[in-house]
Design brief:
Rossmann fold, single chain, about 25% strand, 9-stranded mixed beta sheet, globular, Nucleotidyltransferase, domain 5, about 700 residues, disordered C terminus, alpha+beta
Amino acid sequence: MPSSPTRVAVDVGGTFTDVVLRLGGELIAAKVPSTSPDPSAGVIDGIRHALARAGAAATELNEVVHATTAATNALLERTGARVALLVTEGFGDLLTIARLRRIDPFSLVDERLAPLVDRADVLEVDERLTARGDVRIALDPLEAAALADRIRELAPDAVAICLLHAHVNPVHERRLAAALRNAGVSCPVFSSHEVLPQPREFERASTTAIAAYLGPLVSRYLANLSRRLREIGYDDSYVVMKSSGGLIPAEQAADHPEELVESGPAAGVIGAKAFGALVGEHDVIAFDMGGTTAKAALIHGGEYAINFDYEVGGAAHGGSMLSKGTGYPLRTPVIDIAEVGTGGGSIAWVDEAGALRVGPRSAGADPGPACYLRGGVQPTVTDAYVQLGLLRPSRGSYLAGVGRAQASDALAQLGRMLGTTADGAAVAILRIATAQMSDAVRMVTVSRGLDPRDFALLASGGAGPLHAWAIAEDLGITRVLVPPLAGVHSARGLLDAVVQIDESAGLMVRTDDPAAGQATSQAICELVARIDAQSAGTVGELGFSADLRYPGQSYELNVPVVVTEGSLDLNGAKAAFDRRHARIYGHMREDSPCELVTLRATKRQHIDPVPVSKTGEAFAVDHDRRDIDFGDGAVPVTVVARSAVADTARGPIVIEDAATSAIVPAGWTVEPIGGGGLRMLRISDAAGGDA
């Protein structure tokens, strides 16, 4: 038994389930097909494969770390719970009216999603609080009981309660929740003052509705996984990755399902930050391309950004203004990730106007792309890779058994619809996929006032290193990083994550108000008490941040703040806000006070890192040259195993390992870097322009 803890990390994707086992100083990877409708079966299958490779047993595991797509898939596929929503009288259409935002103001079609709660399941409550929390219309106990009886008759899967100004005074929400329990309502109840104790009733209602919509499904999934883990001999609890980049015990995660929406992508960003620091790259675009989606996140100055104004379920998950207005607002802490429905399994199709489209529908793991030989007949991005020679089955790899003939047949059929050949259809598919994934990178760079050319592109996921060169050339990026175990990178990132507790409190005080000091100190005391109640005995770092704005503004910026002996440095917070406002918007108001809207606290567990001495197993390719079409005709390309790259090599070259392939086209070089990774550099005579 090794002296360091034996930890296994599992990331469930739409096509594959990735597992990384840390046994002493060695990392052992496994990749198995994801299982639907019960992803926990694939989790156990992956753990068994990794343990078998290590010659270990489940009883030797000290900890299981998990990133789940259960929440994301439920939102994308609209397979969550039936929710009943209780709102203040007059606010029954709150989720339908939403905000006056349209991603395309010139479109004649309303692109907003239907609310997660049917209007017939929204009940209005005769009560009212003032903005200060004073009771204007008291909640009648008889009405509360009648509403509870009505809920029992509706028999929803979950109940969401969101009353006006409940974040200031939750008295009525608490009474309604108690009435539901007294009436024998057994389904889970989510109250907005517990889910999101912050102002803005629409965003608070949306976030609470998301929690209720996901709650029963996530709870069942986590409980089912616990049962399956016990069956293989692991009896301890396990932890789950949150969207904010921290871990949470599975028991708590079931009560906060809204915090798991970007669980898997967050793990990839954690891993990208760790690898960037290892090789001295502190300005990195983390790009993860899996089977169903592609994700992009920014690491600037060695730190990733947290977004508190996120949208999910729309044209793209993210917090960029480029995608605002199409999804459901989610105001919990989320690593600033942009996600688009383009992945290796994305299906290529022709719309009613005869235009080629790629995604967001995916072939998934079953039946998968046509080339997977599982019965899939629709052409996908992976089929295009196979057709053009970018991807080819290799002995011992996870893609052994890929069929080029099946890929060609599917693409030829698509090509006939477009008036081109199978090769022409494949090239078109990859160009469209590149454009869509480049947009995800722009969402976290250009829309934030940053130039993507100033960053290195860190490519991960099963298809990330395969496609990174095309995105880099599209955006003018000159450095591409490929970490070790890139094909299971999010699972690897889970091993670098720590337990994290996030709490927030809504305020509305001006920095020049004499009472601001007392108000913020009281809020700090409450936040610390809530965190201590969840982290008894945990050693960690406590940090604070605040959402501020100038008077008259309707949006806030989050900045780190200094708290000393329970007191907030208001002048320092104002100065930090001024600097960030100037960086983002080009101006600031030094002579104006600020309004502090929300105070946030985070506690991160402290653990000593475990050094890694060995990563994965050696992988031998069974061929050394093949023809590849980069879009302008086939050329012969050298194919080598990653372990064979010992010095700088010039493209075109393909570097393969068991979980992914890195494509280095002409005009690029590749070199090995620390920890078993690769760095690709664009040189001056590269196709497409100068470095």
